[in-house]
Amino acid sequence: MDKDKEISSQPPEGLLKISEDLKPEVAISLYAAERATLMFGCYRKGDANDPDVYVAALTFVLSGYPEHVIRAMTNPDNGLPSKHTFLPSVEEVKQACDAYIKPELDHKERQARITEQLKERAFLEESSVKVKYPTLESMRETYPEWMKAELRGENPDHIGMILEQKYRLTALLKCLMKMNLIRSRINLS
């Protein structure tokens, strides 16, 4: 057999090196594995069908959480081992971790919302953004001439015109109502 075609059980050298980006993930995974093994050791023998698979599954689940959550869940004194007589399922461990970290996540979300609201408030309070409401005088400048004259008391005829239009509209409405009443009586017969 050629040396080039030899099959080696060793992985290539490049795969053994951990990149700097993955070091925190590897560290948390190692810590999770250590704590999962500790938690598994707190229960009676024979509760898991395959202890290696169980510890691997717990390691995978626990490594998705921060170190303080892993420590709290696997602590024999007040974590899951002190609350469960029998070995908890992977789902129960995940639910317990989610319940433990929920207040922390809710607090972070709330703080993010508060920060965003404070930024919006600061933006709206800037003098360049503030809404400038018109004054009464500037509004009066936009009135039509007849209204300006009326406000000064110079156009009393205008009020008479408005009353006359009101009477005409009232009479027109009365006529329309009578016509609708007649139509409804004709349709009913």
Features:
189 residues; mainly alpha; 2 domains; 9 helices; 68% helix; elongated
Quick structural summary:
It contains 9 helices and no strands. By secondary structure, it is mainly α.
What do these coordinates show?
The structure is a single chain. The protein is an all-alpha fold. The protein folds into 2 domains: 16-104, no CATH class; 143-189. It has 9 helices and no strands. It has helices at 13-16, 23-41, 51-62, 67-74, 80-83, 90-125, 136-140, 145-152, 156-188. Helix 2 (23-41) packs across helix 3, helix 2 (23-41) packs parallel to helix 4 (67-74) and helix 3 packs parallel to helix 6. It is elongated.
**What number of domains?**
2
The total of beta strands comes to 0
Number of helices: 9
Largest sheet: none
Strand content: under 5%
Segments where pLDDT lies below 50 for 5+ residues? Answer: 1-12
Task: Round the Cα radius of gyration to an integer and report it.
Answer: 40 Å
Listing every helix as H and every strand as E from the N terminus to the C terminus, the arrangement reads HHHHHHHHH
Portion in helices: 55-70%
Distance between the termini: 112 Å
- Describe the oligomeric state of these chains in a short phrase: single chain
Broad shape: elongated
- Structural category: mainly alpha
Averaging pLDDT over every residue, what do you get? 77
What's the structural blueprint in terms of helices and strands?
Layout: H1 13-16, H2 23-41, H3 51-62, H4 67-74, H5 80-83, H6 90-125, H7 136-140, H8 145-152, H9 156-188
Helix pairs in contact: 2-3, 2-4, 3-6
